[in-house]
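check these tokens.
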Amino acid sequence: MQNKNKYQVPALMRAARILELLGKKSADLTEIMTILELPKSSAYSLVLTLEELGFVRRLADGHRFTLGFRLFELGNLSVTKVSIRDYAMRHIQELVQREKVTSHLGALDGAEAVYLLKVDPQDSILINSWEGKRVALTRSAMGKVLLAWLPLERQIALLKSASFVKKTPKTIVDMDELRNHLADVKRQGWAIDDEEDILGIRCVSAPVFSPDGAVRYALSISSTVLAISPERIPELVKAVTEAANNISRSIGTPSEMFQHWKRETMDCNNLMEGSE
């Protein structure tokens, strides 16, 4: 909004300022004029035009205005046009190059998670996975993230239909225990698969937030327990979370959407206590 050019249309700039204001709080015409320092005639004509277009709507009292549902509709249309692979690739490549681990971007598909994107490190240990591979929700770090941010009803339905197979001694096979674990995952903002699916392999995952606040994608990193040692987990949690947040920003998600789950890396050590 601050970069001016000779083609800038003043009326559109004023309309944008009105929308930004109403995105923060509802306001009547006098408040809009005062806060934005607009002439009465300009404020009146702009607000009524925005209302006619559906970008602004009048509240029940007939005097105060707020954002209209047309913006919600256009926002949803914008989200459907996003190619998550295109937006995510650069951030994932930087993560892999820096941390020397394999990284996956995945999404929920039915009762499983599916890898949409995989990037391997050069000259390092490779993980036996591929784009399109399906992984269990209950045993993978990515699956836990995708489950943790689901509406509770949907989460419980998936857990009830899940097959709790004990793949390793560390696999969680009790639904109530896993539900408690998922609550911890959502509270701290990340998940770990500590040899729960494959012995000798650890994974760390973080959510990618869409502009509407939903978690439709998760970013994970995977390697051996030697490469992802308990001592290194705090560093990797920070790295994968920052990369996931950068992807979220790239698709238009405001930082406020995911700052609620920002935690000190000491939380990483808490989850690892007793796991060795």
